[in-house]
Every structure is written in structure tokens, then in C-alpha cells.
Amino acid sequence: MQKTALVCGAGGFIGGHLVKKLKNEGYWVRGVDLKRPDFSETAADDFVVGDLRDQILCQNVLDRPFDEVYQLAADMGGAGYIFTGEHDADVMHNSAQINLNMAYYGNKAGIKKIFYSSSACMYPERNQLEPENPNLSEDSAYPAAPDSEYGWEKLFSERLYLSYNRNYGLDVRIARFHNIFGPEGTWRGGKEKAPAAMCRKVAEAKDGDSIEIWGDGEQTRSFMYIDECLEGVRRLMDSPDFRGPVNIGSDEMVSINQLAKMIMEFENKKLELKHIEGPLGVRGRNSDNRLIHEKLGWRPNAPLKDGLKKTYDWINQQIKNNP
Ligand code: NAD
Hints:
Layout: E1 4-8, H1 13-24, E2 28-33, E3 46-49, H2 55-61, E4 68-71, H3 79-82, H4 88-109, E5 114-119, H5 149-168, E6 172-177, E7 180-181, H6 194-204, E8 210-214, E9 220-222, E10 224-225, H7 226-238, E11 246-248, E12 253-255, H8 256-264, E13 272-276, H9 290-296, H10 304-321
Parallel strand pairs: 1-2, 1-4, 2-3, 4-5, 5-6, 6-11, 7-10, 8-13
Antiparallel strand pairs: 9-12
Helix pairs in contact: 4-5, 6-8, 6-10
Bound molecules: nicotinamide-adenine-dinucleotide.
């Protein structure tokens, strides 16, 4: 029997790539999103444009007991969207509403398994104050103190899905993503994240120009290429009994200044880094991959540079196509 999957957020960056992967693996796939994918046609067999905050819509798209549901839909963006405080109410309301609906109606529809994408943003700020040694092991999540409402909503929804598991036996899988990037991600307009923003700035600059970086650029992060993220998601879904929450992220930690320099090297551009005020998020963050390795016998290991190069080339092409 052909396996069936529902991908919520299929018009987004990770959802769009996930649909392609599931199709390649032979699934029948339905995608749902407020919009169709921005940069290519969806690979889904059926694509519903609709609002997952709407209970009727949720009931309609859950018209069968899907083998796998992937809940990726969320009101989100990069630091420029999440850390300014201007979108807090929307972020909390919209994403919580989607998750409340999907847990309730998914369970009612008898789905076999549901994946939920949480985020490293749910970890306490106190463990991410030093750029060099952040602590993001899964068991460091409590006492909770995320630094954004986006993180609080993720934590709430993790607990929501886990409670459906305890009380109704719903098979849930939860991953905490750490900065996923790659081609076909938002690269301009305010919702783009650091790797895409930096690739765009470098691609648009000429030798001798300067590019702007928020803060002193010494804040550290790790960035994971989309293909490895999806590999982790599929392995978690296929695991017989491990539910998570588990980190899915790279542990190759770089500062934002190092990230910019790495990108400049692709075309040997000599650019000055101009540090300006901007929304920053925590000081240091890196994925702790001990648990995923222990439970799934796998951990990500692709070099950051390789994924960045593919992303840079794609963004360069976008700039040429849409100046
Ligand atoms: P994205 O913004 O590209 O995709 C999210 C999609 O959800 C968008 O296409 C959006 O239109 C859709 N959506 C929002 N509200 C909706 C609604 N009411 N009804 C239907 N669709 C709706 O983001 P992404 O990078 O693909 O992230 C996917 C998931 O992974 C999100 O839950 C995000 O919080 C999580 N995550 C991503 C990262 C990352 O680095 N990309 C890191 C941590 C967690």
C-alpha cells in the first residue's frame, strides 16, 4: 500500500523540500499552506491553499487516517521578525491555534504519527549568554526561559503534542531545529535568516564595498543544510519508539563574522564588515548532538561551507533573475 503523508506548511521552505523528498520516497502527499511555494512548483499530489487556524479547514484536510503528518506551519521569520517584539501577539496566537487544531483533529482523524517542528529558540536564554560554550542539551530546557515569544509558543506546543501522546496514545515525534538554510529559502524582504541575508549582501556587493552586520558579529550560531535536516526528520519518524524532543542541527559553530568571511571567499570578494545596531537574539547557540546520536545512531556532519556554496549560487541566480 502506498503510504500517505500530510505536510502542513508545504508552501514554506522546509515543507516544500520535504514534499519533494516524500514524493521521491514514493508517498502520496497532500500539502497545505496559506500560499503555494515561492520558488518552484509544489511536488505534492494534492495542494490545499488554506488557513490551518480554521477548524473546518483542518477537518477537511484530515479526511483520512494519514500514515504520517508533518506539522511545520508557523508564523515565523528571522531575527528581524521574531526579536523586535512587533509580531509577538500574532506569532503566539497564529502558531498556537494551528497546533491546537492539528493535535485535536489529527487525533480525531486517527492519524498514525505526527511530526512537530520545534525550535532551538525554546532553550533558556541563561545557557546561551557566552558565545563559546552554549549549553543546548535537550535536558537543559527546564526551568524554561526562552528569549522570545516564538520560543515560548514552541515549548507550549511541544507539551501539547506530548500530552496527546500520554492521554490519547497519539504517536508524536518532536525535533528542535537549529537554523536550517538552503536554496529556495526566503532571501530578502525581512523574514530571511542570517545565511541567506549574508549570501545576498555579499552577492550584491562589489570589491571595496562594506556589508552590514547586526551587533558585533561575535555572536555564534550553527547552521544546518536542508538535506541533512530532512534526513534527520525522516530518521526520527522511522524510529520505532524514540519520540524526542531531540535537536536537529549542526554542531559546527561559527560567529556571524566568520560566516560572512566564509561567504566572501566563494568569489574572493574583499568587503568590509560594518557593525550596526539590530535585533540579535542570544549570544551563543550550537546544537548538542549527543542524544540524536545515541537514539538514532546518526548525527549530521556535512561541512557548513558546502551547503553555503549551494545556497550562495542559488541566491546569486535569484538576484540576476529578479534584480
Ligand atoms: P517558512 O516560514 O518557510 O514555512 C512556514 C509555512 O507555514 C509558510 O509557508 C507559511 O505560509 C505557513 N503558514 C503560516 N501560517 C499558516 C496558517 N495559518 N495556515 C497555513 N499555513 C500557514 O518556515 P520554515 O523555515 O520552512 O520552517 C518550518 C518550521 O520549522 C516552522 O514551524 C519553524 O518554526 C520551524 N523551524 C525552522 C527553523 C529554520 O531555521 N528554518 C528553525 C527552527 C524551527
